[in-house]
Amino acid sequence: MQTVAIFGVGLIGGSFGLALKKAGFKGTIVGVSSEATVRVALERGAIDEAAPMADAARGADLIYLAQPIGRILDTLHHLDSYVNSGTLITDAGSTKSAIVATARQHIGRCAFLGGHPMAGKEKRGVAAADAELFRDRTYVLTPDDPAELERQPAKDFLGWVRRMGAHPVVLAPEEHDRIVSFTSHLPQLASTALAATVAEQAGDRLSVAGPGLADTTRLALSSFELWRDILATNNVAIEQALNAYIRKLEHVRDHLRTREIQSEFEIAAALAATLRK
Amino acid sequence: MQTVAIFGVGLIGGSFGLALKKAGFKGTIVGVSSEATVRVALERGAIDEAAPMADAARGADLIYLAQPIGRILDTLHHLDSYVNSGTLITDAGSTKSAIVATARQHIGRCAFLGGHPMAGKEKRGVAAADAELFRDRTYVLTPDDPAELERQPAKDFLGWVRRMGAHPVVLAPEEHDRIVSFTSHLPQLASTALAATVAEQAGDRLSVAGPGLADTTRLALSSFELWRDILATNNVAIEQALNAYIRKLEHVRDHLRTREIQSEFEIAAALAATLRK
Known about the structure:
Two copies of one chain form a homodimer.
Chain A: E1 3-7, H1 11-22, E2 28-32, H2 35-44, E3 49-50, H3 53-59, E4 62-65, H4 69-79, E5 88-91, H5 97-106, E6 112-117, E7 138-142, H6 152-163, E8 167-170, H7 173-202, H8 212-216, H9 224-233, H10 235-254, H11 259-275
């Protein structure tokens, strides 16, 4: 692996470049991004040079798609004709089924490996990129066929992921999307719906709030731009997650004065404690 | 106001004692609590001496009830016979309708003023007490009759609340309970129900979670002991708050791929930003 092309040099793409270098990568990192982003990415050393998409794709051993999901889908429609047969294409999109299905249709099957680093920050953009972003975080890989992981380019890529300090976890794309609908997409929508409900019902009385409201509505600050593609490409799993949550809230509502509610508090506290280990 | 009796010298009661002294109170603070709590409260200087309930009540100009709600209700059933006619009784319970109604029935009406400092900490107990706990926080007062605030003992008490740096807000007990059902009780139950749902559906895959899950489930760490009395004494308002939240979640679920969801994100983000001002 000599040349890596990063498409979309934002927080994740920029961090991938910085982390690769910190892990000892001596090859060339080419960035494909807007002019303004490229300038900052070069300054920060997240990329070594910039190129248009077609040129970057032609010369790369690894193509790392770190764009928004909609742009990744778009790129996959056009990439195949530029790519060498030995190149691995991987991505960092937050949903996997739609991306893997699009790659299956438009890219030679063995040249694509879906991925999702479970890492992030409140701040976006390459200015916030961090060589340590992936350390001690799960890095999900969603091969369409497990044999993809046995090809040398995939093994090389996995080696670098491990050297960055991340922990690879292999999941089927649909299983990934079902899990994150509960562990990531549901918390976002629960927080957004909570903030919207409070705005309608008590928005003029926010001085009368406990400190817990700020915690539970921090995610509600997220931009819709980031979430539109996630909601569109995982809507079936998200609907099911919302239904499970609504059923749980109805159960809580119907048992406010019984022992049932104590058991929900205990299950919930155990999960919250496990998350903090 | 020469002598203050604090019933229940935990985080709130202990902080009230420390804050009184810091604000310049030169009288005597008597604590009514368990032996172990009294020992720590004396060490920390939150109280000057300890006494049994009846003795403390007899000598006090101000009685500050900072026990759990159930204990406050119990105390109000027994306190009237010990209290001097000039004494003000106030409380710091998290729900107000049940407490104000009990006081109306068992205490001479003008001798009681309901209160709720909107302040707290993750840690409980007098060891975590803090003279600055009330600074820049709202302190809700819920007189059964607005004339209560015009009596001298209430004016004296309010003066000390202001000198502690808190901002008094006057609300009817039912209005207080309706507002906190949205701003405090709903966030707790939303967090508990979220954590319980994730535990059931993805509890074995917590390594595949974004950082937002930890934020939204921090409240789920709360102990049920603290919440049992709140749920029992505000269940009607909490049911309505849960219903409004469930309706909002259903609306979100039914509009995942439409512009409607963008407007919910915007309303929610505006509320979350206001909370952080």
